[in-house]
Structures are given as C-alpha cells and as structure tokens.
UniProtKB/TrEMBL annotation:
Keywords: Amino-acid biosynthesis, Aromatic amino acid biosynthesis, Cytoplasm, Transferase
Pfam families to which the protein is assigned, alphabetical: EPSP_synthase
A GO CC annotation given for this chain: cytoplasm
Protein name: 3-phosphoshikimate 1-carboxyvinyltransferase
Subunit-level organization: Monomer.
Gene Ontology BP terms: amino acid biosynthetic process; aromatic amino acid family biosynthetic process; chorismate biosynthetic process
Family matches, as PROSITE patterns: EPSP_SYNTHASE_1
Protein role: Catalyzes the transfer of the enolpyruvyl moiety of phosphoenolpyruvate (PEP) to the 5-hydroxyl of shikimate-3-phosphate (S3P) to produce enolpyruvyl shikimate-3-phosphate and inorganic phosphate.
Primary localization: cytoplasm
UniProt source species: Moorella mulderi DSM 14980
Residues that hold 3-phosphoshikimate according to the record: K21, S22, R26, S167, Q169, D315, K342
Keyword Glycosyltransferase: no
Amino acid sequence: MHLIVKPPPFLAGSLRPPGDKSISHRAAIIGALAEGTTVIEGFLEGADCLSTLRCLKELGVDIEGPHEGRVVVRGKGMGSLQEPEAILDAGNSGTTMRLLLGVLAGQPFYSVITGDASLRRRPMGRVTRPLAAMGARIWGRQGGELAPLSIRGGNLQPLTYTMPVASAQVKSALLLAGLYAPGETVIIEPCRSRDHSERLLKAAGAAIKVEGLAVRIAGQTPLRPLNVSIPGDISAAAFFLVAGCIHPRATITLKNVNLNPTRTGILDILAAMGGQITVTPRGESGGEPAGDIQVTSSSLRGVEMGGELIPRLIDEIPVLAVAAALAAGETVIRDAAELRVKESDRITMVARELERMGASIQARPDGFLIRGVKGGRLQGTVVDSHGDHRLGMALAVAALVAEGPTVIKGAECMAISYPRFADDLARLGVEVRVEE
Ligand SMILES: O=C(O)C1=C[C@@H](OP(=O)(O)O)[C@@H](O)[C@H](O)C1
Ligand SMILES: C=C(OP(=O)(O)O)C(=O)O
C-alpha cells in the first residue's frame, strides 16, 4: 500500500493520539497473571498490541475485545497459563516477544515463539541469557540469540543483574520472570528507561521497589486485577509535535497524552530546538501523568543530543531527524546505536530515505549528523518505509513541508502502532490518498 501526501497550506485542529503502546502490552500481560477481571480502556488497537492479546489467548487467557479500546482480561492467577498448542506469533513486536519470554520463563511447560522477518533478525540474547541464568531452558538460532525461540521454564531462581543496555523490554522481561522466583530479583539499569512495568506491577500489588537505578521485586506474591485507563501515546503524538513545529502555518492540540518523565525527552529536545510547545497537565490516567500539548509553527535550530536523554526519546528519533533536517544549523545525535536493532536499521534507513527527499543527513555508527536546510525545502518524491512504522510516519511528516507530493511505499506498516495515522493527518487538513 502507498500513502500519497500533499503538502497542505495549513495544519490546524485537535487530536487524541491512540493509547500508549507500551502500557497496552503491559496492562494485558499483567492482567492475565492477576487473580480476577482486569478492565482496560484506551487500549491501542495497533497490530503489535493485538499480537500480545493473540499470544495470551493461545496461553489460555480469557480475553474480550478490544472494542473501541476496551479490553477485559479474566486473569486466573500466575500459575494458570496453559501450554500453547501452536507456535506463538509475536508478529512485528519486540515488546511482545521479550516480555512474553519473561512470562514463559516462569511456566513449567514448553512453548515456541516467533515473529515476522524483521523480528526474527532482532537480538533476543539480551533476554534469553539472563532468563537462562534464572533457570529457564531456552533454545534458538545462533545460540538463543534469534527467534524462533523455544523455551521450557519453571523453578526459577531470583537473580541480581546489571543490564548492559538501557532497555525497558529487558528490564520488564526480568521483572515478569522475577514474579515466579522465590526471593528478591534485582535489576540494575545503566540509565533510566520507561517505567510502565514498575508502575503497573505496583498497582497490581507486586512487592516491587525502585531505588535509584535498581528495581527490586520479591516473587510469588499474587497479583490483583487492574482497572486502567491508558493515556495517549507520546510516541504517536511526536509525529504531530514535529509536524506543528516545521510547518509554517500550524496550530495543533494533542489531547490526553502520557507525560511520564521517562518518555518526555521529545518535549525537552523540541523545546531546546526552539519549538513552540505548551503543555497543560491534566492529572493522572492509569497511574501515569497525562495532559494536553499545543504546538505552533516554530523556527527550529539544531542541537546536540546523547547520553541519558536517548532512552527517553528513542522511538522519536526518526521524526526528530525530520525536525533536524529543517532546523537552522547542525544537529548531532549520539549514543543511539540501539536504533540499528529496531524494526529496521533506523540509522541507515532514516538517512537513506530522508536523503532522497533532499535532506543533508549522514549516518554514524551511533546516530546522525544532520545539516538543516532551513530556508530551503525538502523535495516530494517516492520513498519507502522499509516495513518500519516509525520511518513511514516520519516520512509522511517530512512530506508536509516538501515541494510537491510524496509517495510513501509500504505504508500498511503504520497500523503497527497508529492504525488511524492517515485519518488523523486528514483531520488536520492534509490531502492524503491511499493506493493499493
Ligand atoms: O518496553 C517497551 O515498551 C519499549 C521499549 C523500547 O525498546 P527497548 O527496550 O529495546 O529499548 C522501545 O524502543 C520500544 O518501542 C518499546
Ligand atoms: C521499537 C518499537 O517497538 P518494538 O520493539 O516493540 O517492536 C517501536 O515501536 O518503535
């Protein structure tokens, strides 16, 4: 499927971004392990979160929905999962595979999990190695590095583990496995990654404590069901935050967006670039701070970024590269080598596709050097998502300020995290067309 985007004369309106993807996965998984009925509102109906629901159903969990964002999970406790009859399919979703590996490590049965071609290339040793150290037996291609992975869990021992990379997926997998181990599992992160698992596990009554960069969980405590209203995904809102900044006639309001400080790096960096962004906090939603964000046309300037900020905006870097390509001066992005092991190699592919549109962007081993074309313009042309939802949507944002229409090939992948992305663009006044 191709998406054809014409640069609009203005961008105006108000949107509610879809429910947070990270929280949707976690609420369903934790609900499945709890004793009682979990009700989730605002669940993201993107393909990734549907993969999580499908796998949980294969494990014998009774799930109703999603119907307009409502999912009902009838959990029967941590020991209630059943050996799946078929291979579990995590689709394109790294979060599904890694978090479920943590759960499967605690199960006294055999299961096999795989995913699509992109997911079968992504590193899994970062979770399979520490899970094996807890006592799970895991087999996979390249010594347990690549899916398909088969696993026989049960009889886990607690672990104290210092993570070599800042990854919320690894941390969450080990916390979920820690639920099954007698005694205390301690996970130490190199720097803080998103903490949705910690918040939801705490809300479900797990014995979990955060002390600086260490998270401690004492296993074998039953979980209570959750009642969660998931706020909008800031990683989805990010496309419109950048669109509003780079378009010369824009006023966009994004409603009920998650403002968890482990996720708001995009707001900090756009502010540092001169973005005209106003945040109005509106209390809590689902145990997470949430609020409205307004963005208007801005005159952006280049910045340098790296270090502890990177995990707070890792998924927003493709669209931030678009902002940088249109800012005055140079932008340097460092310490982001993790981008190479996402749905695509996001360093190579972002540079390749933005270059086609006339951006001056150089791929580096751990990021980018981008020279803004301020005053100049990007060129509408044919570009490719390479099956990567965030790259596809970032290119659509670049198209909003390009000369002439842009054709984005492989646009169906946008439904991984934002099924209504094209509709939301249209709501702001953009002429978008889908071609099969
Ligand atoms: O835990 C999560 O929900 C996620 C963590 C991040 O991945 P890593 O844990 O690999 O950094 C992020 O890129 C991904 O989109 C979602
Ligand atoms: C990296 C992403 O997701 P996952 O790792 O779950 O596939 C993403 O959504 O950008």
